[in-house]
């Protein structure tokens, strides 16, 4: 695309884009050098972005959007099956997953103190068009049930692209804004937080964002805080798990959670999804405190566990999805979005697939029970690890068919530099789900909706697309 655009014009777009980014908070904190740490210097940079939207098939885009409600129901139904979660994950040889399972057991034994829950999920998809025997399709990469990030920055890249297209008459170059979807992901997610807060229904209570120390993606988080205040007049405070352990209390009789004089309506996790967030027992005990309280959790420990990759693999096994989804259309849509997923657990390792993967490692990805990017094993390493890991080590991984799409050329801006790259993208679909299980005779679903989109693009030779992890950049789709 952009055949008619001169180098000069591209540079002009770049300058406009960078100014817009800094002026509108499309920014993040740069990882400091040692020297900067010593001098206490904080550097802010623009979020890496594509200069114009990337073309996407409208039917496949809509297919992904339309899966939001199906996945919400799936997550919720699985989360209610205590035994399924415990039994499926009991043999995953991974301390982190086992700790989460322990909390799940403990809070269920004591009795769940809050029957309402908030889910802010993001299901991620890649285009698979390398198989010439079938039409291009989308497959799910993974489902994030905790700390689904980038919604604020994603809303901004859509605004930036709309601005650049309009301002520079790019509609004449085939970039018709009618084919550029709106994306209100930041507002949708804040609406979810606000609705949950209102359901908690206590004057003077506040939302608590549970954060990492030294968060680099701060403006993405702050954006939610500001909308929550501006639009709903709800306050949001930020605390780490360590601070929660030190200063929060759960009331003995009504189980309300308070910290520093604030009662917490909603505990919204933007940390706690990786072992790095629990350097000691202190953080685990902070997590347990929150889980035992009557604050509305986003996510509950059960919703968190449903997002574990082992669960994704087991749901793809014949006969399992049926247990959780009875609606035929919904079942078919979900099933269609699964690519090949295989167990590497001691109990049911699929030796045939392992042989195939050793012979053709480029067709597979090995994935541990981790979040946040940069943890998977690719290419020759797949063959190497499959042959050298012990059965116990393998049990903490799953194996997945690699989703492969054809690359396209695009222009991107990273660290103020204009680059032309061969690119691939990954489409994320946010969804909000609120349930209330206090009365079993009533419908438990309070809110079940799509909550906007995220498009991340990466160079085709990079394995991953994580923006915070430094691999990817933000983009938006133009539909055809
Ligand atoms: P995380 O929870 O760490 O984000 P993901 O499952 O999203 O884990 O994997 C990280 C990245 O690895 C993805 O964004 C994608 O770029 C790549 N990836 C993961 N699974 C596949 C797959 N089956 N095929 C191709 N790439 C994949
Ligand atoms: Mg993830
Ligand atoms: Mg991911």
From TrEMBL:
Binds 1 Mg(2+) ion per subunit. Keywords: ATP-binding, Glutathione biosynthesis, Ligase, Magnesium, Metal-binding, Nucleotide-binding. Its cofactor is Mg(2+). Pfam families: GSH_synth_ATP (PF03917), GSH_synthase (PF03199). Mg(2+) binds at residues 142, 144, 371. InterPro entries: Glutathione_synthase, Glutathione_synthase_a-hlx, Glutathione_synthase_C_euk, Glutathione_synthase_N_euk, GSH-S_sub-bd_sf, GSH_synth_subst-bd, PreATP-grasp_dom_sf. GO terms for cellular component: cytosol. ATP binds at residues 142, 309, 367-376, 378, 400-403, 426, 458, 464. Substrate binds at residues 122, 146-149, 215-217, 221, 270-273, 456, 467-468. Residues 206-306 form the Glutathione synthase substrate-binding domain. Its EC number is 6.3.2.3. SUPFAM superfamilies: Glutathione synthetase ATP-binding domain-like (SSF56059), PreATP-grasp domain (SSF52440). It catalyses: gamma-L-glutamyl-L-cysteine + glycine + ATP = glutathione + ADP + phosphate + H(+). Signal peptide: none annotated. It is an enzyme of class 6 (ligase). GO terms for molecular function: ATP binding; glutathione binding; glutathione synthase activity; magnesium ion binding. Pathway: Sulfur metabolism; glutathione biosynthesis; glutathione from L-cysteine and L-glutamate: step 2/2. Belongs to the eukaryotic GSH synthase family. Homodimer. PANTHER family: GLUTATHIONE SYNTHETASE. This is Glutathione synthetase. It comes from Dictyostelium purpureum. The lineage of its organism: Eukaryota, Amoebozoa, Evosea, Eumycetozoa, Dictyostelia.
């Amino acid at each position: 695309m952009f055949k008619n655009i001169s180098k000069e014009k591209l540079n002009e777009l770049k300058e406009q884009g960078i100014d817009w980014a800094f002026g509108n908070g499309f920014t993040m904190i740069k990882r400091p050098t040692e020297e900067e740490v010593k001098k206490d210097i904080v550097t802010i940079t623009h979020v890496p972005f594509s200069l114009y939207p990337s073309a996407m098939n409208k039917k496949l885009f809509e297919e992904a959007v339309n899966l939001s409600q199906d996945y919400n129901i799936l997550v919720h139904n699985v989360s209610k099956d205590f035994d399924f979660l415990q039994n499926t994950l009991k043999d995953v040889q991974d301390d982190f997953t086992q700790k989460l399972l322990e909390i799940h057991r403990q809070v269920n034994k004591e009795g769940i103190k809050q029957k309402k829950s908030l889910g802010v999920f993001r299901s991620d998809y890649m285009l698979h068009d390398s198989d010439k025997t079938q039409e291009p399709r989308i497959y799910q990469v993974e489902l994030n049930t905790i700390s689904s990030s980038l919604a604020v920055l994603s809303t901004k890249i859509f605004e930036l692209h709309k601005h650049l297209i309009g301002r520079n008459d790019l509609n004449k170059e085939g970039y018709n804004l009618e084919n550029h979807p709106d994306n209100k992901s930041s507002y949708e997610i804040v609406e979810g937080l606000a609705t949950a807060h209102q359901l908690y229904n206590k004057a003077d209570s506040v939302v608590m964002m549970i954060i990492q120390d030294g968060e680099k993606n701060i403006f993405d988080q702050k954006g939610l805080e500001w909308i929550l205040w501006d639009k709903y007049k709800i306050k949001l405070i930020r605390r780490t798990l360590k601070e929660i352990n030190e200063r929060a209390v759960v009331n003995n009789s009504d189980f309300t959670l308070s910290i520093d004089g604030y009662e917490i309506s909603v505990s919204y996790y933007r940390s706690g999804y990786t072992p790095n967030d629990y350097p000691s027992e202190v953080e685990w005990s902070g997590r347990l405190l929150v889980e035992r309280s009557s604050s509305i959790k986003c996510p509950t420990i059960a919703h968190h566990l449903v997002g574990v990759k082992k669960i994704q693999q087991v749901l793809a096994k014949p006969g399992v999805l049926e247990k959780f989804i009875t609606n035929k259309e919904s079942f078919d849509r979900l099933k269609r979005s699964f690519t090949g997923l295989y167990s590497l657990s001691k109990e049911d390792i699929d030796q045939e697939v392992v042989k195939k993967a050793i012979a053709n490692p480029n067709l597979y990805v090995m994935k541990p029970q981790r979040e946040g990017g940069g943890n998977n094993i690719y290419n020759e390493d797949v063959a190497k690890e499959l042959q050298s890991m012990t059965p116990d080590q393998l049990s903490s991984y799953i194996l997945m068919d690699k989703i492969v799409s054809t690359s396209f050329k695009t222009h991107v801006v990273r660290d103020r530099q204009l680059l032309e790259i061969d690119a691939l993208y990954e489409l994320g679909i946010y969804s909000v789900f609120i349930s209330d299980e206090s009365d079993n005779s009533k419908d438990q679903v309070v809110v079940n909706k799509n909550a906007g989109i995220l498009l991340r693009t990466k160079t085709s030779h990079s394995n991953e697309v994580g923006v915070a992890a430094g691999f990817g950049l933000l983009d938006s789709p133009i539909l055809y």
